[in-house]
Amino acid sequence: MRLFALLIVLVPIFFAMFGIKLMRDTLFGISVLPISSLSLQFLLGALSFGIGLYLIGSFILHRDRKRNKVQQRFKRP
Questions:
Q1: What Pfam families is this protein classified in (predicted)?
Q2: What Cα–Cα distance (Å) separates residue 41 from each residue in 18, 30, 37, 75?
Q3: Can you state the angle between helices 38-66 and 2-27, rounded to 10 degrees?
Q4: What is the biggest distance separating any 2 CA atoms in the chain, rounded to whole angstroms?
Q5: pLDDT of 30-39, one tens digit each?
Q6: What residues does each domain of the chain span?
Q7: I need a labelling partner for 77 at 20 to 30 A (CA). Which of 21, 38, 54, 70 fits?
Q8: Residue in 54, 61, 52 with CA at minimum distance from that of residue 12
């Protein structure tokens, strides 16, 4: 069960890491092959980083809600 939870967390982490890589490559002027424009590459990198960070955060919040380790304002009514 723990291995399955680890895999669930690793997929968004790799997604966010790829987003950071795209944004870093844009700042140094390195173009990735399937993406033609550097501004589009940065936008896709920021989007993938944001989605990855959102998924990681929501997984941690869900786990902490299940274990009653969140503040009152984060608990569901």
A1: DUF2627
A2: 11, 10, 6, 38
A3: 150
A4: 49
A5: 999 899 899 9
A6: 2-74
A7: 54
A8: 52
CB atoms within 10 A of CB 22: 23
54-73 residues labelled b (16+ CB within 10 A) or e (exposed): ebbeeeeeeeeeeeeeeeee
Quote the CA–CA distance of 35 and 63 in Å, as a whole number. 36
Q: What is the pLDDT of residue 7?
A: 87
DSSP character string of 27-72: HTTPPPTT---HHHHHHHHHHHHHHHHHHHHHHHHHHHHHTT-S-G
**Below-70 pLDDT ranges, the chain:** none
Distance CA(47)–CA(19), nearest Å, equals: 7
